[in-house]
Task: structure prediction
Amino acid sequence: MAGPQKVIITCALTGSGHTPSMSPHLPYTVEDVIEQGVGAAEAGAAVLHLHARNPGDGSPTADPAVFAEYASGIKQRSDVVISISTGGGTGMTVQERLQGVLKLKPELCTLNLGTMNYGSFPMIDRYKGRFQLAGRSPTWRAPGPSPL
Result:
């Protein structure tokens, strides 16, 4: 019989295609990402896979300063491995999505080189009229006419 095997648990705090209007539990402020990141590490996560969010509205951003705030706040309280995503958002160039990785040189990163058009845009219609933040809709949408 095989002995115990080691497991690495990775936690993606925000996911790539979610918006604050889909769930009140999605962290997007720097403070919330740090708190939930440290909490995930304390619960057993060895790696935190981070997507950066605009702290004002939760939309995807590739701003290295946001990634740096997350990483420094988490690292002050935990030794979890930080993995920066290059997923960004639809419409961002590869160069934009690489900014955080190139500037911060994290311990781990993902390398997403595709279009980042996740094909989830039909899902937006499912939430039409149910956005939790009044007057807000996802700012990351496919080019062309608004689906809302």
